[in-house]
Specification:
Blueprint (H helix, E strand, L loop, with lengths): L3 H51 L3 H31 L1
């Protein structure tokens, strides 16, 4: 029959084996992150940089807003004129 010291030795061996497996798993996870996840995040970041470079800055947005307001007013005016012309027919 196993004695107390035998059980303690077995428990210690199991703890060592579990610690070794944990280190191996963590190493594999690290490699996976390095090889799979990090490159994909880098690609996403590069894509985001491209998008941000293409975005208009605040001054450009003011100009765009002004032009949009002008276009909206022009469309409303043209719609009224078309409606008047249809009534005249």
């Amino acid at each position: 029959m196993l004695e107390e010291k035998d059980l303690q030795a077995i428990a210690q061996l199991m703890d060592q084996k579990l610690a070794q497996q944990k280190r191996e798993i963590m190493q594999e996870v690290g490699v996976l992150i390095e090889n799979e996840v990090t490159p994909r995040f880098n690609l996403l970041a590069e894509g985001q940089e491209d998008i941000l470079r293409r975005m208009p800055n605040e001054d450009d947005m003011d100009i765009i807003d002004g032009r949009l307001t002008t276009l909206e007013a022009s469309v409303k005016k043209l719609n009224r004129e078309v409606a008047q012309l249809k009534k005249a027919q």
